[in-house]
Design goal:
alpha/beta; single chain; 40% helix; 10-stranded mixed β-sheet; 13 helices
């Protein structure tokens, strides 16, 4: 081998090694910022009912945060759902939470001064409204719920908010025209066909509470068609966050038998307060995005978390820490 060729080979090897180090550095930046000690302390994350997706997502996110920020303690706090979650963060009882966009907007337009403290961290995934009845039920549409015993969600849940709007759009007074119940996904499935003729649920799909009963018993979904969704939109205010869609046939295969279900979807947001530490929020945002596949392996709806759409946290502006993260990974 000539001396010149040997020098060229060494030079190419060094250049290749340098390029590899640059690539590795970029990959490490995606995972964790270089040269920084992870934030520490304690934060409270408000989730939802124990059988719901919010709770499961919160538990899995806590595990991921422990890997990136081992000195950060994350305390999970169960709740009725979106409406309670928004109020907790706004008033300082929780630091982070997940809430449906319609519940966030309803809280904002309510005129409470604390609403101005709310900020967005990431748009996560969509909730699907699921109206569940026994398989032999004579209920075929929302209008058929009149005179029935219907669970419309816990008082401070996002389910209660959206179920009320759907019922009113169908011409049903949720107080006078049905026997309203306050069951959520933790109690509703077990009472279906006994104390309940139907129950509303809204979450990412599939929901653990429904998956479990799908394995041992049958139920059926009642469609919420586009015409009814249009009537919901006509109610104004936060209703514009709803959109007509189809629940995918893969959500509950043993129940849907290859068919989609017309329904309503609404986006879920990860939110915090304006005064939350920007550095901690930046780290948390990074963990949320990079842990998508790991969490998504257990919470299927979390697979839809996407860097390109995460920044759209309407009706809230982005928290400064979240904005820093998105700017850092912008192509």
């Amino acid at each position: 081998m000539s001396t010149a060729f040997s020098r060229i080979s060494r030079r190419r090897a060094l250049q290749g090694g340098a390029a590899g180090l640059v690539t590795l550095g970029l990959l490490l930046w995606w995972v964790l910022p270089l040269g920084e000690d992870p934030p520490s302390g304690t934060i409270t994350f408000s989730t939802g009912t124990r059988a719901g997706v919010y709770q499961e997502y919160g538990e899995l996110l806590r595990e991921e945060l422990a890997k990136d920020m081992p000195q950060l303690k994350v305390r999970l706090l169960t709740s009725d759902g979106s409406q309670e979650n928004v109020q907790r963060v706004a008033t300082g009882r929780a630091d982070f939470t997940i809430a449906a966009a319609d519940a966030v907007d309803t809280f904002k337009v309510g005129g409470k001064p604390v609403a101005g403290r709310l900020r967005g961290v990431a748009r996560l995934y969509d909730d699907y409204v699921q109206l569940v009845v026994p398989p032999d039920s004579d209920i075929r549409s929302v209008a058929d719920l009149k005179g029935k015993r219907v669970a419309i969600g816990l008082p401070d849940s996002g389910v209660r908010l959206i179920a009320t709007r759907v019922l009113e759009a169908a011409g049903i007074d949720p107080v006078k025209d049905i026997t309203p119940r306050s069951d959520g996904i933790d109690t509703g499935p077990a009472r279906l066909g006994k104390e309940l003729d139907a129950f509303f649920w809204s979450s990412g799909v599939p929901t653990d509470g429904l998956e479990k009963i799908a394995e041992t018993s049958s139920f059926r979904f009642v469609p919420i068609d586009a015409g009814l969704v249009a009537k919901v939109h006509a109610q104004g205010d936060a209703a514009h966050f709803y959109r007509a869609t189809n629940m995918p046939e893969s959500a509950y295969p043993t129940v849907q038998n290859g068919s989609t279900v017309p329904t309503i979807a609404v986006s879920n947001l990860l939110i915090t307060r304006k005064d939350m530490d920007p550095r901690l929020t930046e780290w948390l945002t990074r963990t949320v995005i990079k842990s998508r596949d790991g969490i998504g392996a257990h919470v299927h709806s979390a697979q839809l978390v996407d860097l390109r759409t995460a920044i759209y946290t309407d009706p809230l502006g982005l928290h400064e820490g979240a904005r820093r993260y998105y700017r850092s990974v912008k192509p």
